[in-house]
Amino acid sequence: EVQLVESGGGLAQPGASLRLSCAASGFTLRTFEMKWVRRIPEKGLEWVSTITRDGGDGGQTSYADSVKGRFTMSRDNAKNTLYLQLNSLKPEDTGMYYCTFINGDPRGPGTRVTVVS
């Protein structure tokens, strides 16, 4: 059974950092293009970042302009896990974060990030 389970969210102050994890099971993560998305109150679902399949180069990443330079997406093939490092957090980063397949909808429980002073 294909499963994606996000974790690592929490309450943070502006400027702080969090690292989100997405544990995958039932498939080999590195063979799929994956993305992080977030659901922000009053804005809906927003794309955050993408990592391509690992073709021997670890995969290429891309980011939404709103997070570029602050967030870093990565993958640990040995652990079959995706990560999203969130640095320099802003209140507008508050939301539920999900990892999923590039053309898929969120399917895991998500992990909540709340950034408040």
Structure characterization notes:
The protein is mainly β and 117 residues long. The protein is built from no helices and ten strands. The protein has a six-stranded mixed β-sheet, with no helix packed on it. A hairpin with a 3-residue loop joins strand 4 and strand 5. The chain is globular, with a radius of gyration of 13 Å. The relative contact order is 0.31.
Characteristic terms for this protein:
117 residues, 50% strand, 10 strands, mainly beta, six-stranded mixed β-sheet, four-stranded antiparallel β-sheet
Number of helices: 0
Q: Please tell me the overall pLDDT.
A: 96
In sequence order, what are the helices and strands, one letter per element?
Answer: EEEEEEEEEE
End-to-end C-alpha gap:
40 Å
Strand order of the main beta sheet, please?
2-10-9-4-5-6
Helix content: under 10%
Helix/strand-derived category reads mainly beta
User: How large a portion of the residues is in β-strands, by DSSP E?
Assistant: over 45%
Which radius of gyration do the C-alpha atoms yield? 13 Å
Main sheet overview: 6 strands, mixed
Model regions low in confidence, pLDDT < 50 over at least 5 residues: none
Number of strands: 10
Shape annotation? globular
